[in-house]
């Protein structure tokens, strides 16, 4: 009994020592005290959408964003010589009412992706094994067979309509949702769709070994429908335009702190208290409720007083590394796009870590490259230096193996971005034990709500719909 009392007393002393002194708050200038209905952590796709939606519903918000801009995975490189934009993060959106309305609110015009490009007779696509740089000739399924495979897959999805809204898994959980996706593809005869799924769902990891539901969460009913109906993109080919306009509105409303981080949090039923380090010094944020939209990795949530249940749940996540870049002087012709492929693997899929593809851009002399890792327990699976070195090495292998096709140049980065940790997901054994039910059960505890890719999918259109339909109603209640 005495030892337990001493332990509790020691814990209390430690905790009090860790808290900011009340006199620190007494000396804060009134302008450094921010009171809002909702504090939002992260100004990416989910955080920005939530802030605008709440603002339109008459609620006051403050968005706290670590970077000097909002937009998250949506990044656009503007070529200084031509002024042309190149989207190097989020590129396409679903043709849904919520998407069209969101862009229309900021007067950002949308078009069907690819509709303004016309037919480019000189466009060339090829498959290369980027381990060696050598071109590989592979047999790809016909478009008719791919369409048939997706039709079969769409029929399967009809069995689980709630999966179109989030990770709302049926009970009891059928094995077909947690078996390796490669096994799932064979069982349902959709092998001809696998390569397409792999490319569109970049950053998932090894698609053949992930639990089927982890691929289905992106490849849901809505995404399958876009294959025939057409995706949307911005008419100006600058998806960051949406976020620059949202940023201007939030700044003018004193609802956004950029280049800012939470250093301390106190979450209770009575409300939320945050200490935020900003370029102008410390701010005290008081809010009725908190919405966290950054990846729920314990490594990224150290400033928050995680409960035992939160920490236990979030610690079960695994993730990948995903990286996008734009390079100059690659030695490749402007009209060439390359898919990384192997002759000796199922569906000719490349080995990760490695490049998914090298794409054309609207700017002559520039190529866009997409690189990813397998699933990992490390929040940041590879260093940026290693990723960059591997990307450069792939281009040099292409040059050496094809001196008659490609120039011998020294590739250099004009833009690079790490999206890690990417695609937070769960192991099959944890899914079977109710991981996602436990995860969703955290909503509302201690006036804290959660949204973002880890809670829905790495797809902005799905994130916005999940946030609007599944998260905000509970958050708004009682405000």
UniProtKB/TrEMBL annotation:
Superkingdom of origin: Eukaryota
GO MF, any single term: oxidoreductase activity
Keyword Signal applies: yes
Xref: InterPro entries: FAD/NAD-bd_sf, Zeta_carotene_desat/Oxidored
Coiled coil segments of this chain: none
Signal sequence annotation: 1-17
Pfam families: NAD_binding_8 (PF13450)
Key words of the record: Signal
Protein name: Amine oxidase, flavin-containing superfamily
Source lineage: Eukaryota, Fungi, Dikarya, Ascomycota, Pezizomycotina
